[in-house]
Amino acid sequence: MAKKIQMPSKVRLMSHPEYNIVCRVFAGTIPYRVRIFITDAAGEDGRPFTIPTSLLPTILGMTEGAFFGGVPGALGGAAGGYIGSFINLAYLINAGDAYDSLTGKDRDTLVHETTHVWQGKNSTFALSYVFNSVYNQCVLRNAYAYTPNQPWKSYNVEQQASIVEDWYMAGESTSSNLYHYITDNVRKGDA
User: Fold this and answer.
1) Res 137 pLDDT > 90
2) How does the average pLDDT of the chain come out, rounded?
């Protein structure tokens, strides 16, 4: 039986050690640390997922201000909810069981999910990667599988995140056949 969606019981800002890891990968092409939140929520079967906070009213029926009311440094109150309905203020990395281990055994999840933050920040519309991800996971048998050395834009968002994750987990090698994606696309903000 499939594991149900897990709503968040904990939320925090991305930690300094987590941000240091992802800055090595994405350089200056991701939002400031205070715009990236980590929760212990998870999708079906415990799968991590990342969404822009502008999607909160649709998914949870609440504004960013209501969701983040008790989190220091987060935009709260009526003004936050009003502004957040028009622009994307932050991103939620819903890490599930990896919530406390993103700088340890679950660094792959950290890098993969931060690629979705990167996609949202560097796209015309922050939500576009969400729709691409949902479509490809529902339609393709394996939305994450890729063949290296194809044009970056030919990959769906899950394939792009898998490329970045695989390059990072293999040691961030500058001689990797995936490194050109990091230098030519990721670090240039070419989503």
Assistant:
1) no
2) 85
The model's pLDDT over 88-136, given as tens digits with 9 standing for 90+, comes to 789 999 999 999 999 999 999 999 999 999 999 998 888 788 888 988 8
d(CA 99, CA 10): 9
Helix H or strand E encompassing 93: strand 91-94
Q: What's the mean pLDDT in 157-161?
A: 97
Instruction: Using the CB atoms, write b or e for 83-114: b if 16+ within 10 Å.
Output: ebeeebbbbbbbbbebbeebeeebbebbbbbb
For residue 45 the two structure tokens come to: 């079967």
Give Cα 94 distance to the centre of its chain.
Answer: 8
Residue with tokens 């560097």: 122
Token digits of residue 47: 């799968």
What does the alpha-carbon distance between residue 38 and residue 29 come to, in Å, rounded to a whole number?
19
Q: Which pair of structure tokens corresponds to residue 88?
A: 């994307």
List the chain domain ranges: 11-188
